[in-house]
Amino acid sequence: MVVYVVYNPTFTFLHLTTNEFQYKGMVAKAVYLCTAGVVARAAYYTAWKMSEGACVLAGLGFDGLDDSGSVRWMDISNVHISSVELGTSIRELIDGWNIGTNTWLRHHVYLRIMSQSTKHVPPSSSTAATVMTFLVSAWWHGFYPGYYLTFVIAALVSSAARTLRRNLNPLVTQTNSPNAKFAYNIAGWALSKYTLDFVVSPFMVLTLPLSLNAWRNNYFSVPIAVVLIHLTFNVLGGSQYIRKHLAAKHASAK
């Protein structure tokens, strides 16, 4: 809460829509965006951790005794701060945020959509199921346009990130180089953090004009990246090329 109270007047998402922000350099914009994200999340962390503490004091996390007679506690956290702030993938960031709601959406929306397969209804793709799940979450939050921009682009980002890691992970793993893996994780952390804060900016400014202005001042970088990933790996055959490359390298190693 101290972080939010002290730094919120200086680092706000509304500043992303101003002319002053528009004329900052690219790196300065990225640093400001990510700092504003940390400050905004601090308020949520405070509320969730206070409620978690209240639940623990009330004994709501008590889960009986284990075989040795020691007290067993359930994980009743609604946020894993380390996963959100230090996660190296979009999936890790999403899984660590608003855990209770994410669990409900996964079981009652996403998995239900994915399991629909009848004579007249073909199985849904994971991307379509993800979009529908995020739209349900947007509808639950309300009807500001910013909510829908955030959750639709978040669904597409989630799908694109899954595609990117599915193709790049084998290449990095195959190198057997600690330096390559370290660099890969650092890049994943930095890009995931920037992407998260870009995606949530409409959620914070709410209106359509302000949302588009914030994105424009950040060069529409994330939507462009999503399109490029889709074109590279799904349309132009990047995934097939990588699979053939890995297969050939594996065969030559035998």
How is the secondary structure organized here?
Elements: H1 2-7, H2 19-22, H3 26-57, E1 62-65, E2 71-73, H4 81-86, H5 90-95, H6 99-115, H7 126-141, H8 145-175, H9 178-205, H10 208-217, H11 221-235, H12 238-253
Helix pairs in contact: 3-9, 6-7, 7-8, 8-9, 8-11, 8-12, 9-10
Structure commentary:
The longest helix has 32 residues. Helix 8 runs parallel beside helix 12. This protein is 74% helix and 3% strand. With 254 residues, it is mainly α. It has a two-stranded antiparallel sheet with strand order 1-2. It is built from twelve helices and two strands, in the order H-H-H-E-E-H-H-H-H-H-H-H-H-H. The model has no long low-confidence stretch (mean pLDDT 90). The termini are far apart.
Task: State the strand order across the main sheet.
Answer: 1-2
Mean pLDDT: 90
What fraction, in percent, of the residue positions are helical?
A: over 70%
Provide the structure class: mainly alpha
- Kindly, what is the distance between the CA atoms of the first and last residues, rounded to a whole number of angstroms? 57 Å
Runs in which pLDDT lies below 50 for 5 or more consecutive residues are: none
Major sheet size, sense and barrel closure: 2 strands, antiparallel
Beta-strand residue percentage: under 5%
Name the shape in a single word.
Answer: globular
Number of helices: 12
Whole-angstrom Rg: 21 Å
Order of helices and strands: HHHEEHHHHHHHHH
Count of DSSP strands: 2
